[in-house]
Amino acid sequence: MADTFSLQRVLETFRSSLTENKEVYIKYYIAGWKELVSFMNSLGNVFSFISKDVICKIQILENFLSGENGSHYVTIQSMVKFELENELVDLTKRGSHPESGCRTLLRLHRALRWLELFLERLRTSAEDSKTSVMCSDAYSESLAQHHPWLIRKAVGVAFCALPGRDTFFNVMNAGDQVQVVALLGESLPLISEVYQITEDLYAKNNLLELP
Ligand code: 1PW
Q1: Residues with Cβ within 8 Å of residue 75, at least 6 apart in sequence
Q2: Among 107, 130, 195, which residue has the most ligand 1 atoms within 8 Å of its CB, making it the best to mutate?
Q3: How high is the ipTM of this complex?
Q4: Which UniProt keywords are listed (predicted)?
Q5: What is the pLDDT of residue 40?
């Protein structure tokens, strides 16, 4: 994992994650998340409880990928097919498969929607906009609906400690604000496409509410 975040690399990993027939490579999906973790880490310690959970989920998926059934975990599509056909997913209550690939990836998938909404707000924000407000608005619209009260509170506290808009733009490491905005404009449709493909796949298989 590189320590210095670069928005350009996020763009590249999400671009690499799409196969020719629009499936999603788990390897690159994870790589994209690793970049985002390094982004969160550069925003300060307040985000460490959030990045810890993401790192843990990345690790679960990496273990599947490098495990004996690794060949079934090449794309999200092949993972869903493999785990469902072999009854490796707890569908209604956590039981014998509490950490399936499907439920683990679903958590990252929901968080990706937050990220997408937040980056879109950042991209179109005015100079005096507050990152904490953009972050929490994006959060309420997406991920918060899947989090219990305690987590929502803790996430809210982390948002309050976020650095300002200028720092965000600097941390993205992609030139001046005009260049960052342009790169965001290029990255967001890709992130959004990966999100939508996953969403449709999960919806089709009734997996959007996995416990
Ligand atoms: C500034 C850009 C940051 C974008 C990264 C977004 C990551 C959001 C992750 C929030 C995690 C909060 C703490 C953990 C909560 C877990 O309970 C939750 N995990 C997630 C990723 O939502 C649900 O996982 P669980 O408990 O069902 O295993």
Answers
A1: 19, 23, 24, 25, 26
A2: 107
A3: 0.93
A4: Cell membrane, Cytoplasm, Endosome, Golgi apparatus, Lipid transport, Lipid-binding, Membrane, Nucleus, Transport
A5: 84
Domains located in the chain, CATH noted: 7-204 (1.10.3520.10)
Measured from the Cβ of residue 204, the count of other Cβ atoms closer than 10 Å reads 10
Specify whether the CB–CB gap between 65 and 27 falls below 8 A: yes
Q: Where are the beta strands (DSSP E) in the chain?
A: none
Q: What is the mean pLDDT of residues 81-89?
A: 98
Per the listing, tokens 């990252």 go with 108
Helix (H, G, I), strand (E, B) or coil at 56: helix
Task: Report yes or no: 152 and 136 within 8 Å, Cβ to Cβ.
Answer: no
Amino acid at 197: I
Question: Can you tell me whether residue 24 is helix, strand or coil?
Answer: strand
| Residue 18, strand partner residues | 24
Name residues contacting ligand 1 (CB within 6 A): 36, 40, 49-50, 53-54, 107, 110-111, 114-115, 143, 151, 155
Instruction: Give the distance (Å) from ligand 1 centre to CA of residue 31.
Output: 17
Rounded distance between C-alpha atoms, residue 65 and residue 71, angstroms:
7
First to last CA, the chain: 30
